[in-house]
């Protein structure tokens, strides 16, 4: 008995591997009713970038020599990266989330996970696992960020990104590659785009609301069309990026500015020229509505429309309109600036 207790203590103190893989063997029956953990009332927690999110995990009772382990299920490889381990008295944090996570501990049965300053990459599935010898059990929760998905391509045209370039391009525009769930939700909300793009798991898709000849034909039903997994190095497509709420403000400066002058105009106000993701975020969350084309950090010219009207592009739906990538010497447009909090 003393030997088992000693091994249990040593296991808690030992640093675990950076990641583990959870896989139920084929034919294993569904887990029994939880004995030690309460089923969460709401398995999906909704939040925004910059907020504080709490993932609930509450024990019914405190078994002897138990541990609670929190981990995040990564969508790109299905591995589980350990975040925190506790035995009720002591805890240890692991991985890149370490500085921003803590246990809520509102009472002695509470092992809920608190994530501060939520980031785009925090979205996903989390596991709270009670480790108690042969009676381990766990619950899965989903952290869902409210946000917006937008298609993105570079100045030199469509289908220029391999996977890694697409990932970098989204990150440079204050966003990240969208997950399939985010792209699907955007399709249900009206995203209709004929160009295929990379998403986070390395697959390629395009969302179609109105079936038409150039986009797979009129006979195919609306939906998120898929090319499946592609070669991340060789194959080239556009990107679908995802962004969430801003910690700051996007505003417009009127003028007839070239690209260099646009950047300087923002800096003169103590701001920076806005990125594409920041403009989409301001349109989505702050209802930014302007009929004026303005320079953005990638050299494109766009404008956000919340209330569609004839003289502002004439399109019937709200959205961020684009004039593409005009010559950076052209003095025709104003600029959109971003001022962080």
TrEMBL record:
Its main location: secreted. This is Hyaluronan and proteoglycan link protein 2. It comes from Zosterops borbonicus. InterPro entries: C-type_lectin-like/link_sf, CTDL_fold, Hyaluronan_bind_Proteoglycan, Ig-like_dom, Ig-like_dom_sf, Ig-like_fold, Ig_sub, Ig_sub2. It is found in: Secreted, Extracellular space, Extracellular matrix. Residues 148-243, 244-339 form the Link domain. Residues 25-142 form the Ig-like domain. GO terms for molecular function: hyaluronic acid binding. One of its GO terms (cellular component) is perineuronal net. GO terms for biological process: cell adhesion; central nervous system development; glial cell differentiation; positive regulation of neuroblast proliferation; skeletal system development. Belongs to the HAPLN family. Keywords: Disulfide bond, Extracellular matrix, Hyaluronic acid, Immunoglobulin domain, Repeat, Secreted, Signal. Disulfide bonds join 194-215, 291-312. It comes from the Eukaryota. Residues 1-20 form the signal peptide. Mediates a firm binding of versican V2 to hyaluronic acid. May play a pivotal role in the formation of the hyaluronan-associated matrix in the central nervous system (CNS) which facilitates neuronal conduction and general structural stabilization. Binds to hyaluronic acid.
């Amino acid at each position: 008995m003393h030997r088992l207790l000693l091994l249990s203590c040593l296991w808690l103190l030992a640093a675990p591997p950076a990641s583990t893989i959870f896989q139920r063997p084929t034919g294993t029956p569904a887990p029994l009713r939880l004995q030690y953990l309460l089923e969460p009332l709401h398995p999906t927690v909704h939040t925004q970038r910059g907020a504080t999110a709490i993932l609930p995990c509450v024990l019914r009772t405190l078994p002897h020599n138990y541990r609670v382990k929190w981990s995040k299920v990564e969508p790109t490889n299905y591995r589980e990266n350990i975040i925190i381990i506790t035995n009720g008295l002591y805890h240890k944090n692991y991985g890149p989330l370490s500085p921003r996570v803590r246990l809520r501990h509102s009472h002695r049965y509470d092992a809920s996970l608190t994530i501060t300053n939520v980031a785009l990459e925090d979205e996903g599935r989390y596991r709270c696992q009670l480790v108690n010898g042969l009676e381990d059990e766990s619950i899965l929760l989903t952290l869902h960020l409210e946000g917006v998905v937008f298609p993105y391509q570079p100045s030199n045209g469509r289908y220029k990104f391999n996977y890694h370039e697409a990932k970098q391009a989204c990150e440079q525009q204050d966003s990240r590659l969208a997950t399939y769930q985010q792209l699907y939700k955007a399709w249900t909300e009206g995203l209709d785009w004929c160009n295929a793009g990379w998403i986070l798991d390395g697959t390629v898709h395009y969302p179609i609301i109105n079936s038409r000849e150039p986009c797979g034909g009129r006979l195919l039903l609306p939906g998120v069309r898929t090319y499946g997994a592609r070669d991340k190095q060789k194959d080239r497509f556009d990107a679908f990026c995802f962004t969430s709420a801003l910690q700051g403000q996007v505003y417009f400066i009127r003028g007839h500015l070239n690209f260099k002058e646009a950047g300087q105009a923002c800096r003169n106000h103590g701001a920076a020229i806005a990125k594409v993701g920041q403009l989409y975020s301001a349109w989505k969350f702050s209802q930014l509505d302007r009929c004026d084309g303005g320079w953005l950090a990638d050299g494109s010219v766009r404008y956000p429309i919340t209330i569609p009207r004839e003289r502002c592009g004439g399109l019937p739906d709200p959205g961020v309109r684009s004039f593409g990538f005009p010559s950076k010497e052209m003095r025709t447009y104003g600029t959109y600036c971003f001022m962080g909090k």
